[in-house]
Amino acid sequence: MAICEGRTVIITGAGGGLGRAYALAFAEQGARVVINDIRAEAAQDVAGEILAAGGQAIANSDDITTLDSAQRIVDAALEAFGEVHVLVNNAGVLRDRMFVSLTEEDWDLVMRVHLKGHYCLANILGRRWRDLAKAGTPVAGRIINTSSGAGLQGSIGQSNYSAAKGGIAALTLVQAAELARYGVTANALAPAARTAMTESAMPEVVKAPHDGSFDAWAPENVAPLVVWLGSVESGQVTGQVFESQGGRISLADGWRTGTTQDKGGRWQVREIGPVVAQILAQAPVAQKVWGS
Prior knowledge:
single chain; Rossmann fold; eight-stranded mixed β-sheet; 10 helices
């Protein structure tokens, strides 16, 4: 049997790029897919591909950044397929500028689409799954969030995007801790693939090879991990952040208490410089900010 047979998944930003690749891969594994994208025609095109291949899908173009409009997405899924088991928060937007050149609109738009967009659907579905679990209905809910290398290491010219994606990684840890009791897992992915966003930011880096060699930037490379995380088989994996690009899957090593000096009493100001220098000398060197 296909790994996601009978499961319903909502994928945001699924009209192209990674979202489209996820949608096709989920459908191939038996899932019923809700293709959400603010570009209604793009969403319909992907749903049409799935239907033409014998799968089950509906298109939806409701806004993910308010609870009212996000509720309409969930309602459409429930009306079409009866239940929702998986949420893939994939939709995103860029407004790249050096930090001092960012406008308030640049900041607010990226925060709204990424951070609030990750909140709305997950909040609605989290409450639904909690209520089902409390009523005695077994739940195998899956939240798959989208962070980024920019959120994990920072990226020059992307302070708004980096802050939002870092926030999503932290949000994932809290969701995992709070929702485990209801049968829900939450994991995040930092994918590296060719999408409209990466093509606009680094077109030469992500372009497809023309010599028949492995296309390490193809979005289809990331999809198997996402589909597995959305399946019932991944129930023991939660609160993790994975990086995926080409044939590589990595587990991100998040913030943790590191090298420590403990005096056993209050430090004097004059003592701080030498002790910080000692801590930094003993600590592993951090990965560089992207672009530095």
